Trypsin family protein
Amino acid sequence: MDRNRLGLRIHHSGSSQSEESALDLERNYCSHPNLLWSSPSPLQPFASGGQHSESNAAYFSWPTLSRLNDAAEVRANYFGNLQKGVLPETLGRLPSGQRATTLLELMTIRAFHSKILRRFSLGTAIGFRIRRGDLTDIPAILVFVARKVHRQWLSHVQCLPAALEGPGGVWCDVDVVEFSYYGVPAATPKEQLYTELVDGLRGSDPCIGSGSQVANQETYGTLGAIVKSRTGNRQVGFLTNRHVAVDLDYPNQKMFHPLPPSLGPGVYLGAVERATSFITDELWYGIFAGTNPETFVRADGAFIPFAEDFNMNNVNITVKGVGEVGDVHVIDLQAPINSLIGRQVVKVGRSSGLTTGTIMAYALEYNDEKGICFFTDFLVVGENQQTFDLEGDSGSLILLTGRDCEKPRPVGIIWGGTANRGRLKLKVGQPPENWTSGVDLGRLLDLLELDIITTNEGLQGLYF
């Protein structure tokens, strides 16, 4: 795997906000702190640039300053105990046990030290160390802080350790990544592309499929995949984000392509049948949650069966600009880290068309001002200093590029990012960059009891 090709120019999904369910706890706007206790900046919602926009729920709330104001003595004692008993690096050497090699091992180490990491960071993820903007092959827990400085300028209790050791002596590096917030968010620009591919996704093509624009009366986004229900009469429909498809006041929201007739040209596709926003951690994340009694895992998906009068001859299974895709890539936590981190991905969305990127990290965990823990699966960055997605691309299918002539395999869907509300400083001499966030497609399909359809034969066998 060529890691040096990664310039790590991180961008965002540009998702905007609609009303969601009571579990959409990220709508609690709050301040997030500077790690070293400087004054916080208010995190505020931004206004949509128009009446009809993509849903606006996709961003992160960071903990308030009050969450970090525990007694200095408690912090000092905790760091002291870690350094005496767990971190032999304080004696001038690294831990002597086995270095972590799997996603599971990294997640377990993080859970083992979740108390200290939650207190002294804005969030954490797992991946590889980043040096001078390039992804290395050194497994690490990524720790996001508001200001990164040399340890020479910090007191003893303010320094994060260079390595962490988990149960059984398995250990990994700690990589501190700067997260900063710059002023009051401005409205996300309505960037427009006018390529043949993008125009087709927005309605000039006679067929729809993965990447096509879908909309209701209030929001628009991207069709992720053509799917079938595992239950009932095996309905055929499509998958997109919940925050694209569902409004709190209209749970059975009707969806159109490219627009509702009241707003422009378009046809009725169907109404939302089932959707999910957040799930608790008992099944997928409970054993890694450490001291967090509740971890809300981002799911953010909606299933819309095609209406009975919709012409299924207008449905295209292949992904425009990509071609045929393979089976869903199921994430195996016991697989080597490089089975996921550092992998190249592509996506096709109604705003930015075909773009490429790299999975920079997995399992982002962060806490809001009330101490509630949130979890999302992927942090993706665009390649070659290009934006991975733009506003309106929420719901786009994330595809792992094929290896050894394999077809690209779906692994997730985009749901949002930090947009201009927060940025990561990864490379000296480059401005802070935004990231794109995605959810695990396999988990989402199981939650909604769906299967993806990847061949025209499979579609015809179900519907015609």
Notes: The chain has two domains: 72-85+92-180, 196-461. The radius of gyration is 22 Å. Residues 1-51, 55-72, 82-92, 182-186 have pLDDT under 50 and may be disordered.
